[in-house]
TrEMBL record, chains A, B:
Family designation: Belongs to the XFP family.
Domain named Xylulose 5-phosphate/Fructose 6-phosphate phosphoketolase C-terminal: residues: 584-784
Name of the protein described by the UniProt record: Probable phosphoketolase
EC number, as in UniProt: 4.1.2.-
GO-annotated biological processes: carbohydrate metabolic process
GO molecular function, one term: magnesium ion binding
NCBIfam families (alphabetical): PRK05261.1-1 (NF003616), PRK05261.1-2 (NF003617), PRK05261.1-4 (NF003619), PRK05261.1-6 (NF003621)
Species, as recorded: Kribbella albertanoniae
Any matching Pfam family: XFP_C
Amino acid sequence: MPQVEARPLSDDELQGIDAYWRAANYLSVGQIYLLANPLLKEPLRPEHIKPRLLGHWGTTPGLNLVYTHLNRVIRQRNRDFMMVTGPGHGGPAIVAHTWLEGSWTEAYPNTGQDEQGMARLFKQFSFPGGIPSHVAADVPGSINEGGELGYSLSHAYGAAADSPELVVACVVGDGEAETGPLAASWHSNKFLNPARDGAVLPILHLNGYKIANPTVLARIGDEELTSLLRGYGHEPYLVEGSDPAEVHQALAAALDACLDRIDEIQHEARATSPTRVAWPMIVLRTPKGWTGPATVDGDPIEDTWRSHQVPLSGVRTNEDHLRQLESWLRSYRPEELFDDAGRPVASVLDLAPGPQLRMGSSPHANGGLVARDLMLPRVADYAVPVKAPGAEDGDPTKVFGAFLRDTFVLNPSNLRLFGPDETESNRLNAVYEVTDKTWLANRRDTDENLSPEGRVLEILSEHTCQGWLEGYLLTGRHGVFSSYEAFVHIVDSMVNQHAKWLKTINRVGWRRPIPSLNYLLTSHVWRQDHNGFSHQDPGFIDHVVNKKAEVVRVYLPPDANTLLSTMDHCLRTRNYINVVVAGKQPQPNWLDWESAALHCARGIGVWDFASNDNGDPDVVMACAGDVPTMETLAAVSLLREHLPELRIRVVNVVDLMRLQDATEHPHGLPDREFDALFTTDKPVIFAYHGYPWLIHRLTYRRNGHDNLHVRGYIEEGTTTTPFDMVVLNNLDRYHLAMDVIDRVPSLGTRAVSTRQYFADQRTRHRVHVTEYGEDLPEVRDWRWTF
Amino acid sequence: MPQVEARPLSDDELQGIDAYWRAANYLSVGQIYLLANPLLKEPLRPEHIKPRLLGHWGTTPGLNLVYTHLNRVIRQRNRDFMMVTGPGHGGPAIVAHTWLEGSWTEAYPNTGQDEQGMARLFKQFSFPGGIPSHVAADVPGSINEGGELGYSLSHAYGAAADSPELVVACVVGDGEAETGPLAASWHSNKFLNPARDGAVLPILHLNGYKIANPTVLARIGDEELTSLLRGYGHEPYLVEGSDPAEVHQALAAALDACLDRIDEIQHEARATSPTRVAWPMIVLRTPKGWTGPATVDGDPIEDTWRSHQVPLSGVRTNEDHLRQLESWLRSYRPEELFDDAGRPVASVLDLAPGPQLRMGSSPHANGGLVARDLMLPRVADYAVPVKAPGAEDGDPTKVFGAFLRDTFVLNPSNLRLFGPDETESNRLNAVYEVTDKTWLANRRDTDENLSPEGRVLEILSEHTCQGWLEGYLLTGRHGVFSSYEAFVHIVDSMVNQHAKWLKTINRVGWRRPIPSLNYLLTSHVWRQDHNGFSHQDPGFIDHVVNKKAEVVRVYLPPDANTLLSTMDHCLRTRNYINVVVAGKQPQPNWLDWESAALHCARGIGVWDFASNDNGDPDVVMACAGDVPTMETLAAVSLLREHLPELRIRVVNVVDLMRLQDATEHPHGLPDREFDALFTTDKPVIFAYHGYPWLIHRLTYRRNGHDNLHVRGYIEEGTTTTPFDMVVLNNLDRYHLAMDVIDRVPSLGTRAVSTRQYFADQRTRHRVHVTEYGEDLPEVRDWRWTF
């Protein structure tokens, strides 16, 4: 790995940078320890110390170093920078820096750049009612939480996309680097177009330790590490040391070299045509807990895992610890850094970039502020004509694909489609009429739809797709993630963290709501008959509805026009996680455009064309999801044929949250309206797309809940036919019809033979399917005819 | 990348190997297409073709090649091999091979090595009632499902651990290689001890394409790829080509070189002391869909993504396609490979290893067959003495740590502990008295508890930990995964797949139940007050209970002795996913050993010491989880002090599945017993560890369900104090007591002022905590005294 030999800093510059770094370090230690006496105007006493010491020192000095040096190059180059902070628990560093540069006070005016403000800054850290110990949504300039690790680099690439002037410096922790999502995301550089997109500068910070262990990358030797990073497509520059003056010079030189190289790459790509080159990156090897206590109670602390959290833990009761803390704090010479009123001195303040360029005020990092709404084509123009409900088939995702295609045309630089190699298989390929898949790696003549200019991002890593999309949304752009339903569980934990971030956006006043995270789950549980058991899991909905109601929406459009209407709506929203589950296979069109738009606006409603209850049903047949809707309507037609006296009401649910209590979810239906739809005393046979108990969990407070009988996926079925899938899970038309008969005793004796007939149909089907491998024609070719 | 120049195969050997490969390819294509006429005794007609063509050819010839060549080295070296098949949809290949070698017929006797058996083999593939298109639990010799991708390499390392004589050949697909879990797992070689463990031989199969895209690793050039693999700690050997004879020679030579090198590494490590070296691996670059149709309808198929699934899709209706299929099948010259009765000819059969060594019969891959039960120390010896309920504190995980330590001593080679750098922080460090953390990378003098011989595996990748553990369990050994509760969501989707695998073990007769997957979630939602919002998520339980009831168990032991009893039980079980949530912080010991063991055996029960209902309660206070139990008992003591006339029954739940209906879960309590505990008409205030609605979902069928009022985590709270966490989520003692007052109207007017008193205590607390940052002494020092 090359080390740059230049020493670009003059003595003055070096001193200035070191002072700035010391100021940040001082403010960091202050946050971890101090409840009062922020300027050390008097000797430290136990009552100045927080009662519970909760914070992490280990990673902090390294982050402070990077931020300080980035300030230098920002001022020098007068260029837009963001910093993505990957290492866990790096909160004190970025909080300190944003306060120093003034962006913290802008976001939180009661925490000014004075003694009282400093005291508040210190107290609130890891304190009840205050802020967490990692870089979180509370921290200006941040788009990445240092809690659950591994997403920094994919966030950085998402942020850089379509922002050609931006440089995203991304500090990757060597602990974080062991995670799968981070390991996969190094290859993001094959999807970054140096002409169209901004730059990402990864800074791998090897401080050597995690919580209680060394890190892998710090212990494989420089040769293997260099080889690895080159294999990832980078040219690494090594900065290593523990002498501050030396490291300052080395880091400044490395940053200059990297940024010069980035300029060169971009200039070349923009002047000619974009190709892939080895992007520069930095490996920064400095001690964990650098400049903190070297030893405490005889144990080595600095440069070991013991500096991970709070190096001196007994300061309130142990006089030695207290004195050691005081001299540690004073080692930064705060009296040179802050004036008597607690304000950073001018020579320090001068080193921060101006209000336009300081990283804590980056508009990119407060994406809601800069997001432009999408220009959407007139959605009605894409609707499929429906002469009669169920008379013809449509391909929902294909229909939406055309709408999405034209949306790409209207929004050439702030919309992307993400997916793990499934856009084609999910039938959204109309988008390839107007754009390609981004691809900077080698190409062959036989390749199709690959180019550096593509706006579709496909890599076989749901983690990377999700991380890119989050980075893109958090910086104020729009996107759709199209995935197999079962495998979106791969990003369950990322969704958790994003939901928490969205909740925090709503809580901190200065952040503005960002474009919603839109999932289109098109290869769903009922149409994985060819892929089998491993591809069948509808539980993502269950996972998502546990999140705060204010940020979660779930839609199950039953056909093409309802999918169109739903997606048109989702693309207009902000600060939600929209989960849309819809089929990619041909299936009946039920509603014409006008009915579809109305039905989606209501979210739930009676389907009059299928009902014969005249306001007084014997049974309510409810359905949510495309396949359950079709099976329900098929059951209704069977029942109406065989038991014409039975009064059936069909209720279709598009917006799943309508089922919940109005006090639990903003979309929740008032009880009166719920009762009017479902009755309070009639049996309700509910055919649901996913795990049936979710419907019970959503409706347990409803009046008619005890009459609710839900069918859904019960982990049965594997490779088989589409209809056999529903049979194996008791969601098929015959079983639903039998459920009705079982619950409407007034039907009398005729129903017994009808029930037996339905049961026999199930048996006939099973015999046929296992022998011939396809569904019986009366099922395959079934059409709603009433 | 070196290519080995030797040509180790004689002409006879070469022909034999090619014939074996052709036989496997023929059997693979047959599975995808044929319903009848398996030996092509007559010209192909449409009715010989399956009505729905569901299968994947693309990856198959490469997998067939590797399996064939592994057979050669197995016979030559007379050594134990397993093959882990990473690429998706590789089912036809491994099914074909196991049938050829005889292991398929051993598992499925009605699919014999004859014409009828071959016809059955073909029909069942991707057919209703048959087997899926990927290598799954149905396939003998497999421990890895090719459905959700990315876990092959970590499974391989888990399988190799503690099996010194075993070589695990792991084919990694180049699509799969893009996933996070796979990318992270390359570093597993730093955790493999060449003296104690077996070897893993990764074979990266670059066939170049995924579903509709090229793969990243196939398009970065040989130099970068070589650099990457060296950076992962491997010495790669390149085998490349499309001429079968050339590739046979090259692959044979590369395998010889790799296995010689593995012998050398192991010999050296076993003779001296284990150190880390660059393990050999193979990069196999052959065309996707090799030997299949070169073009179809004018489009290139072989060596493009178009060969991913079914290259000829119109065979039933398109005469050209049918003829093309027939000549494709005949190109393998089946008449030379199978006799008239459909049995593979002797010259083919001779190339398969004998029954002891053929990979489809590997006892490692049917772990339940070879698993020895753990030797467990007498658990009562580790119990903490409890003079009176709640009188003293205990550290549950620390108490269990001692038991686990001694379990390690009794089981020196079939037990491992897995975790993402949290064993120490989760207070299980007693284990370090008898073992270390496995570490083969560089070490420093200041390191602690690291050695090649360690039995604790820590890497900051939940995916890798989970993959290793699954591989270890699937090959018949035992393990515990200790993780932060919030971050175990990272492996949600892996848990899904493992649960599906366990269900399939129960279904296919020849697999034996494997040791259970045991989760100890110790840093749970209520004790993340220092780590904040991002670390707070109890939803893993919700995720797991959606899986098949026969494989899922959830336990919430409320103190040290109940945790001991629970873990002692879990370590004895097979084929379950056991989720145990327990605290690592000091907390009251409630039950002495005898009571704890009895309570855990029942799974749910009245706590008489805390109840004063004399069989006729005014209210039932139920609790599940350590913190909810403490808050409930604190609420009870408040209520008994302030409202002594109130008759309270306390019910504690350890085994969460007891709440469910007996028809829904094998642990479900019969209704009579449930009613006896909870009553059918009295209010039940239920304090639950996780999201409250899960309790409603589990109990919605119960008689008293409408009286149930559940408190739990509602996504509130961040960095604060432990007690403030419960306050913010309305789970605190005061709120629970207020809930009781609100629901027992018979309490009369005195209760009004008591209620106000409790409400005031909550306010006092909040004021104090936000000012001083710690809980009020009466909460901090609270003790059960009744």
